[in-house]
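tool_call: predict_structure(chain=1)
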Amino acid sequence: MAGAGVALLPLVLQLGSLALAAGGEAVPREPPGLADTHDYQQQAPAHSPGPAGAPQEQWRPLEEWLGQLEAEVVVLRKQNKDLQERVRLLEACECRPASAPCWGLGRAWPEGARWEPDACTTCICQDGASRCDPRADLPHCRGCSHNGQTLGDGEAFSPDDCTTCRCLDGAITCTQNPCPQGPCPAPGVCCPHCEPGQPAATQPPAAHLLGPPEPALPTGVGCPGGHRAGETWNPEPCVTCTCQAGTVRCQGPSCSELNCLESYTPPGECCPVCRPGCEYEGRLYEDGARFLSSTNPCLQCSCVRSLVRCVPLKCPPSPCAKPVQRPGHCCPACEGCTEGDSHRDHGQEWTAPGDPCQICQCLEGHIHCRQRECPSLCPYPARPLPGTCCPVCDGCFLNGREHRSGELVGSGDPCSQCRCANGSIQCEPLPCPPVPCRHPGRIPGQCCPACAGCEYQGHQYQSQETFRLQESGRCVLCSCQAGEVSCEEQECPVAPCGPPASGPQLCPACVLDGEEFAEGVQWEPDGQPCTACSCHDGVPLCGAVLCPPAPCQHPSQLPGECSTRILAFFPTSEPILTIPLLPGACCPSCESCTYHGQVYASGQNFTDADSPCHTCRCQEGTVRCSLVDCPPVTCAQPQSGPGQCCPRCPDCVLEQQVFVDGESFSHPGDPCQECQCQEGHARCQRRSCPGAPCTHPLPGTCCPNDCSGCAFGGKEYPNGSDFPHPSDPCRLCHCLGGSVQCLARRCPPLPCPEPVLSPGDCCPQCPAALVDCPRPGGAVPARHQEHFPAPGDPCRRCVCLDGAVSCQRLPCAPAPCAHPRRGPCCPSCDGCLYQGKEFASGERFPSPSVACHVCLCWEGSVSCEPRACAPAQCPFPARGDCCPACDGCEYLGQSYLSSQDFPDPRHPCSLCTCLGGFVTCSRQPCEPPGCSHPLTPPGHCCSTCQGCFYHGVTAALGETLPDPLDPTCSLCTCQEGSMRCQRKPCPPAPCAHPSPGPCSCPVCRSCFSQGVQEHQDGEEFEGPAGSCEQCRCQAGQVSCVRLRCPPLPCLLQVTEPGSCCPRCRGCLAHGEEHPEGSSWVPPDSPCSSCVCHEGVATCARVQCVSSCARPQQGPADCCPRCSDCEHEGQKYEPGESFQPGVDPCDVCTCEMQPEGPPSLRCHRKQCPSLVGCPPGQLLPPGPQHCCPTCAQALSNCTEGLLGSEVASPDSCYTCQCQDLTWLCVHRACPELSCPLLERHTPPGSCCPVCRECVVEAGGQRVADGESWRDPSNACITCTCHRGHVDCQLVECQVLSCPEGWAKVLEAGSCCEQCQAPSQACMHQGHQVASGERWAVDACTSCSCVAGTVHCQSQHCQPLLCGPDEAPALSPGSCCPRCLPRPASCMAFGDPHYRTFDGRLLHFQGSCRYVLAKDCRGGDFSVHVTNDDRGRRGVAWTQEVAVLLGDVSVQLLQGRTVVVDGRPVALPFLREPLLYVELRGHTVILHAQPGLQVLWDGQSQVEVSVPGSYRGRICGLCGNFNGFAQDDLQGPDGLLLPSEAAFGNSWQVPEGPGPSRPCSVGRDVDPCRAAGYRARREANARCGLLKSAPFSRCHAMVPPEPFFAACVYDLCACGPGSSADACLCDALEAYASHCRRVGVTPTWRGPTLCVMGCPLDRGFVFDECGPPCPRTCFNQHVPLGELAAHCVRPCVPSCQCPAGLVEHEAHCIPPEACPPVLLTGDQPPGAPPSSRGSGS
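tool_result:
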């Protein structure tokens, strides 16, 4: 009761205030209800005036009411406890499915799963119910207990309408609800001050929770609780109250509606928010993640806006009849095969072990094997490799033997040689040696012709044999003599020869068709191509040509002509018709096949029209056919119909629809069934239904998975509806997302003292009930707080609140399918919405987007797969819409209609026909030509008489050519397709008594030499004396040739008098001739050695080599000797030589001494000079060789070259032509001051050089060409000549000065001079004391001498750099030095980077980055800092930092320079590391490694490095390796995919301390966001880059990358003045690159990128002004020399016009300069390193 008393204390205070406020009015007779026992304590005023009375009488009624209230509280507590026990009992007894899931955190949980809805609560799914308990192990999670109920930490509850309590850290705190502002439905319940009469619909959301109203106070009076009028306070963190006109008005937070199932209120906040991410099965997932359920592999889940949505996986149709389920997998798979210890998956193919020619395949647990087919790629392939099946063409298998490719094989023909060539046999005749006779004959058994017989006009004759011939109508008698044929003419009768009348005939011949043929001739008569005729004893005999049997089974008789030829003259009397002609067009040929009346080319595959189930191939005249290779079938009983070649599985007919065997389809009458056609029978079964994500789904089309409503107790309810429990009217059920939750009804507290419980109701009601809400259509009105669906809109849910209706749309649970259809209110999975069309569940339909695909809608998800096609029953099916069909042909990639004829693509002379998917090809027929030697032109199929083809020779009509059978003596002419042949006419003999010669023509047999001596034919003899000729008598003519001298191995040759051939001559040197290859010591230099090589004498000083520890050298020795001839334990005899080490040029020789034992002398070999050898022909020495050689002959020292000099390939030698010998002498090299490691020999030079000199005093370094004064002696001047220090001494005379004068040392002078008493000088407006010295620039220094300024300038030696070098300055030096030619990188615009290798990049990061860095030696590093400056996400360069060892230089905006954190004035010098100067508007930084940085003070920076850094640079400027393709390398050396990733990788991490905000770079395109108009304007303005002002530069620097960068910048800058600045940046960047290559464009205009100059001081603008202007102090230096040592780049700047000089920032005439005494050349100063650092 103590707690009750505490709780009733506010009630007592309230009743007291009411009694006092009533002013003695009648006290209510009925005690207040329980709902009136709480109110804000601050609402009771501290004191309220009232009439005086007896206190006992006033408090007595209150005490009675208090007693009654205490009794009622006890009764209510007992009733509440009983009700809770009853609820627990009823909920435990409710029947649920055995494995029903639980719903929590927006998803379904399986039985036994655990999850944590928040950090202090753990839930478990038991028997389909979620059981959640607080975590007592955490202190902040301890809950509270109130009236037997357990509350979690942070959980809030309302014991009545006026109070809100909350459990925090184990304790319950209660506060009164704030009262509404304005009217309320029931004043006086909690808030006594609210005004009645306002409908509930206008209340704030928490109006029914606010307390009773307070009585209104007069205007200007404060509010209860001591609050003043207008005061605002917060009774709770989320409630704000205001005192207005004596009334307290409170308002709660206004929170937006959330669209998530799981939300929480963060600490310190008033409104709940959605819990980010998802927790599922004990694991956390990010929003948008997709994952598989760990407990159910068939669920594909995703986390979307804190909700977990799981969809059943759709398994593809199984290609097998009986798939099996695998553990851990969702979808069933085809059964595999097990063979021994190996397991194979369904459909897997492998080669059978032990038999590589057998291929096996696993099909539904059974292994099917077949033989592998091998293609025929060559005629004689080698046997298969071990473990393989098919033969290979890398060798040959012939006659049972293996042959490698290229190996000789036996051919059976001794006169030919055959080789294996990649599976083929190639034969060629054996080569025969030349014979000394003109008509050698062939001897049986020999391959080559010999002079033991004669072959003449196609006939063979033995030696000494005579025979007769007829030539040109004359009879000749010929004889064979040792391979030579000689013929003599015989007298013949005038009449033509005919049949003999009597006696023998001298010259038999035949006449046929008016044409005469000689005896023994065989020919083909005109018009009878397959007839052969011969002349025998003057009688022509003709007959058909005999053909040999063809060596093939199906030869072809090709149409054409027989070949006509004159065969031979036979000396026999036998008829020649028995000798067959060579096979030709008249005889069957094996080049093609004739099969069933059709002609096929060799190698052609075809289908026989008579047997369409056979496939045939023609191979060299023989046809081989085999059955068509049918595809494997998947059924046990395949069928073969008429006209079918291959068996196929029967189709299925269901509901008058036909389905292909193996096809899966939906039942035409019941889409809930899945069917498959197997062996002609359709096997159907109901589809498996996926588990619904809700507990009480509505029945769908096929499955109960519609969560848009609830099926409960045999009835269906819409989503969001409330309905009474079917068996317990006191329980109220709620349908939400297909799940039903039933709870006991909580009766609201009633304001009446005696509520009435009506029969059938669960909660008592006050007699005067609240206002009901009417429903349209005369329906029963809705009671107060009753929920009902909105009329006409089932998707909205309404509630009645005291006569006012409030409606809101029902929430939709996420659809657990991929393509839900549109439901009445929410998406539903009982159908599919796919690409704008709705489909029923189980319906199959063609894919709207992918041809030949069929889709299936099943439970809201669509899966598509290719349409199943039956195997085609023909070899060349046409491509149908989806499946191949035999209504046409697809042949070699082309489509043809059935019955269509078309030319064979492989053989143009064949014609093919397509018939029902089969293709048959045959050769096109040709008409026989009417000539004997027709020609088949290229690209034609039939021969024609428009040319001749005769024995392998092609001739045009009318063309005459030598007879292929007798090319020496006969000519043939092509006439209308036939060849006509006749003998050549003989030339007249030039002698008186000729003899018969070749072709029976008269020839001369003897010759006369010098008209006196006679020589026989073929005799050889010497020519006239001294002619060196050899002569020969041939056919009566003498022919002489000069004797051939044997080749000599030398170039320098001399011919002795009286001799025909020359001899080799050595070298003439020092008046003596030395033989080739010899060595000698020149008489004038005993320590030199000469060698003679190819007429070139090379002399050089002996280079000594030491081979012992203590060598000894005598007075006459050139090299030290070792006392004995022993080396590394081996003794050598005198005269022996050996190589002491690995260098083949070192040699040691054991030599005898005049006195004492022999000794070793070691030296390097002398290599000869290769005079005149081009550099490209020089060959380096091979292993164990010392000297290089020349690939071509060396030049000779001729008489015309005597006294001339020529350069040797070895630049260390000077060669001079003396005594017809090149004498080459080695020259000496100067001493160098640099270390050995720094010395190098330039190409084409002899002596090594250095890039700079090292001064011994202090080890200081001096650039090449620079001069200095010795620190210890000012009169010694030294100059650096490529590493050699050359010093000169200046001697001073004795100086005597007048009295009062002083001896002073003038600036730049070695000797002292007399100076008058002191007198100051003026310099740049300042007074300078006499004797003071200062430097004007690096080359000019001045001093004040007796009031006059004396200036001297240092003059530099002419600098000649190599082709790959360029002059460069060292910091503080005047004279440049040569460095490898530099390359430059530039950053400009927004910003763009043009790398050292020429690639243009765009990167928009606004952090600090490495621009260029020496990544190997660490000599320097250049960093840039970018700033976005508000330009639509792009940036530009703001600052440049150069790091040189420990020195840091910052180049800032406005051309400010900071060195080591201290601003400096320009020019700034810190020797020998750094020099910074300002030229025009450009800051130029020179650094010691050859680095140069140009900064315009705004956004453009250019970095230049010498070529010695090639391959050593990294950063945004690329790697400087000559290849632009690999410039996107990150710090780890890997190529990055984008320019943004590349730029971000070079970001410099921020150091300690506060850092500037920066953003990483992204790939942005400002032109896309700027729009079409901005892009068009940017293209137009940037077109200036491609116009005439820049045209001279286009060939040197392509403008396209800069044009793209310009358009990019103008899009980013936007309109206005900023666009003009961006345009000028891009134009200046391109102009700078043009100036680098020597082109200076004039592009600025009066209004375009104007650079102002102070015209009042005489300056004018120059686009490429000289970087070193002429001043009053250097005007005496010639312009050429001034430009030579000023190697800085020209920059756009303000310059003085021609004729004026610059002085103190003005342009003045030279005569207006102050008095300056120019004393000429300045003696060089000390070495640069001795100067102090400047600032």
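agent: The chain has a mean pLDDT of 77. Proceeding to next step.
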